[in-house]
Amino acid sequence: MLDVRRLRLLSDLHRLGTIAAVAEARAYTPSAVSQQLSALEREAGVPLLERTGRRVALTAAGQVLVRHAETVLAALEEADAAIAAVRTGPAGPIRIGAFPSAVRTLLPQALVALGRDHPALELMVTELDPVAVPAALRERTLDVGLLHDYDIAPAEADPALDSVPLLRETVFLAEPAETAGGVLAETATRPWILATPGTLCHEVTQRVCRAAGFTPRARHHADDFATVLALVAAGQGVSLVPELAAVPPPAGVRLTALATRRRTRVAFRRGAATHPAVAAVVTALSNATHPAVTPGVTAHGNATHPAVTPGVTTPTNATHPAVTPA
C-alpha cells in the first residue's frame, strides 16, 4: 500500500523541482525527504526518480504516480468534506488568504456575514500575494484563497486546486488630474510607476503598453496600489490600477477605463468544494461582490459604469464627459 504522506512529497517534488525546496516547504531535512521518497520507491516496486549528481527528475513511472497522487489527495479532501457535512453546520477553523485590496473591500463584509450566520466558524485571515496562495493551499496553511489573473495574461490551471469565479474588474489608466489626457498611447513619453519586475502586475503593464505601441519608461517601482496612487497624485508618473484598488480615486488622480480586466477567483484544494466551511466562505465572498458599495466595481462580469465616480472617465471613445472631483 502506498503511503499518502509520501505521495504528497512526490507531488511536491514534481511541483517544486528539488528535494531542498520540498524540505523547506515541509519543514523537513533534505535527508528525511530523500528517505521518504526512497521508501515510496520500495512501495511502488519501480524507480520513481532519476538522480544525476545533485539533480533529481521523475521517471516515467514517477510521472504516472504523480498524476494518480493528485487524484488520491483530491479524494481524501472529498472524504473530509463529506464527514464535515454530517455535522450540524460549518464549524471549526477556516483559514482565508486574500490580497490587500480584497482584504480592504470584500473581506470585511464577508467576515461580518460569516460571523453572523455561522458563529461556530473560527475565521482567520492572512493578507497574502496571490502568487503565494497555491502553495499555501497545497501545504494546508490556507483553506480558501483568492487568486487573480488578467485577460491579457491568463494563468495556468493548478491540477491540485479547484476554484470558482468571483469578480471581474476594470483596469484603469491612472494619471495626475492636471495633466490627464485619457489616452494610453499618449503616455508613451511620460514616466511610469511600475510594479516590481517579475511580478504579474509588472508583466500586465508591459503587455498593455506594448499592445498600444510602446514600452513604458519606469521612474518608480511600487507594488502597493495605495502607494502607486499617492505617487500619481504627486505628479510622479502614470500607472495601471485595478478597480478594487482605485475606485474612488484619491484627490489629484484621474482614472480612464481600459479594455483590460483583472479576474479574481476563490480557490481551494481539489475535492474541498462541498466542505461546509469552504462553501460558506465562497458564498459569503460571492455575496460581498453583489452590492454596489463602491461605484464602478464590476461584480461577476456584469460591468457597472464608472463614469459616475468622481475622477473616473470611461474609455477614450466615450461621448460623455468625465466628472471632475469637487
TrEMBL record:
PANTHER family: LYSR SUBSTRATE-BINDING (PTHR30346:SF29), TRANSCRIPTIONAL DUAL REGULATOR HCAR-RELATED (PTHR30346). This is LysR family transcriptional regulator. Belongs to the LysR transcriptional regulatory family. Residues 2-59 form the HTH lysR-type domain. It comes from the Bacteria. Residues 307-326 are annotated as: Disordered. Keywords: DNA-binding, Transcription, Transcription regulation. The keyword Oxidoreductase does not apply. The keyword DNA-binding applies. InterPro entries: LysR_HTH_N, LysR_subst-bd, WH-like_DNA-bd_sf, WH_DNA-bd_sf. It comes from Actinoplanes flavus.
